[in-house]
Amino acid sequence: PNTISKPAVADAALKKTQQPYPSFDGRVKETDSQFYLRVSERLRHKHRAITAWDYERLTLQYYPQIFKAKCINHTGFVLDEKTNAQKYTEMLPGQVMVITIPDLTNLTTANLLRPYTSIGLLTEIQEYLQTLTSPFVKLNVCNPQFEEVQFDFQVTFLPNHDITFYKGKLSDEIEQFLTPWAYGNPQSIAFGNSIEKSVVLNFVEGREYVDFVTCFQMTQFINRGNPDAIPPLYNIEEAVASTARSILVSYYDKVNKVKHIINSPANCDCNG
């Protein structure tokens, strides 16, 4: 804000120029490496969206506020005659779906654990890509589906460690381990990923304040809170994304402010 003081071309009809808010859709001067990259990609896709690679590069090139894009072939939505709702399916020849992840460095108010792109920007991207692809292609540009993973276990901390404080600290560290992109590592966002219970258990046992862990269980929630949600998958050994557009994230109930269920001290009466 307050960096633009006058127009590039003077206009006598303007008495004063003010810029109280940050600018938008602006770009810094292109570097030599960026120019080389843009021209190389242009020579490949020729400003046409045909392959999945074309859709992704065209989206990233013309919308710098998007950090990552994934194109999925023969994927879209069909109308469910029973519920009269749109149903996701990956068996639709002639349809293409582009999933976007926004640039997390510019998201100051959004939920970093579930980075959604605004509906307005999704519509703008779809209208732009539609002009570059075949008229016979039905295009869908939408947000990813975030599937939550929650851990329920009992733990005993080392002596002289406050239980209340370290329960919260351990829950936060599990969240950071599962969703590192919310803590400064956006490269780790992956579609269709999986999480093994043994890997997270090893992470928890490796904390310097943890003595031992028991009754360690993992639950996967798909579309929690939505009408088309499926029953949770309890006590599983591996959580696998149910669709190609899904991303596994750490569980968080915003209303009740609940993350993972951690009980301490540990009670060894269970069979886990």
Overview of the structural elements:
A hairpin with a 4-residue loop joins strand 2 (76-80) and strand 3 (85-89). The protein is an alpha/beta fold and 272 residues long. The mean pLDDT is 88. Strands 6, 8, 10 and 11 form a 4-stranded mixed sheet that branches. Strands 1-4-5 form a 3-stranded mixed sheet, covered by helices on one side. Strands 2-3 form a two-stranded antiparallel ribbon. The chain contains 5 helices and 11 strands, in the order ααββββαββαβαββββ.
Topology:
Layout: H1 32-45, H2 52-62, E1 66-73, E2 76-80, E3 85-89, E4 95-102, H3 119-130, E5 138-142, E6 145-157, H4 163-178, E7 194-196, H5 197-205, E8 210-221, E9 238-240, E10 246-250, E11 261-263
Parallel strand pairs: 4-5, 6-10, 6-11
Antiparallel strand pairs: 1-4, 2-3, 6-8, 7-9
Helix pairs in contact: 1-2
